[in-house]
Amino acid sequence: MRNALPIRVSDARSNANEQIDHAVSTLGRSKHRRQVFEAVYYHKSRVKSADQIVTMTGLPRIRVLQEANFLAAKQIIGKVQEKGQLIAYEQDSFYQANKREILRLLDDQKKRDSYPTKRKPLSTINVNLRKAAREPKAHFVTIDEVSSFAGVRNIVPTTRSRKLSEAEFKRGLQNIIGEKGTFTDWGGEQNDLFTTWIRIAGRRRRAAFALKGPGAKGKMTLRHLGKNADQIPRLFRSPADVFFVQYHDEIDQMVIAEMQVHARELARNEARPVWFGVIDGQDSKRLIAAYPNAFE
């Protein structure tokens, strides 16, 4: 049986900054408390058992319970009981949506000190438009914008094309790009293909591809991307500038949204532009039609 989270008496839309500031203050400088917070809010699995948090953090069980109970008392997380009296902790939808902002403030004391709330409003707001314009951004890119794939620009989408295995499609991409390396698949890989030979706007860039062969069926969703839906985070740990996910069929918009989150975070953290995109079934067929010899 689960105990529901306490009902909030404040309006998240009008008091969002206060609630974020409350979470930041509650987490403070405690390394263990932050580990528990990040474990509870890891990915979209709403409930994490105490045993799961122990495994994720490596902390002793008693320490996990102490910190989790403290966060529950502060209404940062919810405490629930599953069947068999299993102790578990539940995400709060507001803090799940704002966890990145909370962690960013924890990591940047200067931004935390200047964070505006009703108790400490900013007296003036200085917006430097030139600086904002210079900030590195994440850009969604299609294969038509990749110089290395220029041959597809005159190819219209078609339903006629044989489905290639992941290995065959990878070899075709390598032939188009001119990448001569060898890439062996294994369970913990960051990417299926990495190259420094791809060109965007005429310049060579580092590119990482995640490829999904025809063994997967139906529209690609996040559940297709790794046992724990962790393939996109692993892809963005590659030392690349450009990131592509390729699939032989339709790709759900949530895959693009997840890539966008990681691309923006990488661009901000490393202060450099990042490109990301998908190659769905239609674009895969266009590549095969544009470069038939590469895929033989």
Structural summary, described in words:
With 296 residues, the chain is of the alpha/beta class. The chain folds into two domains: 16-113, Winged helix-like DNA-binding domain superfamily/Winged helix DNA-binding domain (Arc Repressor Mutant, subunit A, Orthogonal Bundle); 134-295, Trna Endonuclease, Chain: A, domain 1 (3-Layer(aba) Sandwich). The protein is 38% helix and 16% strand. The protein contains twelve helices and eight strands. The strands form two sheets. Strands 4-8-7-6-5 form a five-stranded mixed sheet. It has a three-stranded antiparallel sheet with strand order 1-3-2. Strand 7, helix 11 (253-270) and strand 8 form a beta-alpha-beta unit. Helix 1 crosses helix 6 (99-107) and helix 2 (31-40) crosses helix 4. The termini are far apart.
Task: Provide a concise account of the structure shown.
The protein has 296 residues and is of the alpha/beta class. Helix content is 38%, strand content 16%. It folds into 2 domains: 16-113, Arc Repressor Mutant, subunit A; 134-295, Trna Endonuclease, Chain: A, domain 1, CATH 3.40.1350.
